[in-house]
Design goal:
Blueprint (H helix, E strand, L loop, with lengths): L2 H5 L16 E7 L5 E7 L1 H10 L3 E4 L4 E4 L8 E8 L6 E7 L19 H11 L1
Parallel strand pairs: 1-6
Antiparallel strand pairs: 1-2, 3-4, 5-6
Amino acid sequence: MSIEAKQFPRIDVRMIHWDERALVPAIVQDAETKQVLMLAWMNAKSLLKTLETGETWFWSRSRRELWHKGATSGNIQKVVEVRQDCDADALLVLVHPAGPACHTGAVSCFYQESTNVSEQRRNEEERA
């Protein structure tokens, strides 16, 4: 029995609402900590490869090719679960990461903080 049939019975590639480039955004989240690690893009082939191998595969929009997360760095992501959202136009991939997700070496690609929104709003109200 394939990994897809055992662990991912509800994901049907034919039911995904692909964008005009035949891609869907995939949010990758640590299955234990729930920290969002990265956002990448999948096409049907990368999704199927992810389901078949149990490791994350994505579509590189810049290089226009499949890429296996961790193939060069060793920071692979073992897939625990794949979920589609209610509209089937985005995926959530829960993983056990073997290292940092970001190419910079950061655990998550989302390490840069912006101005606190509440603080910014308060400052704008004080100026008005």
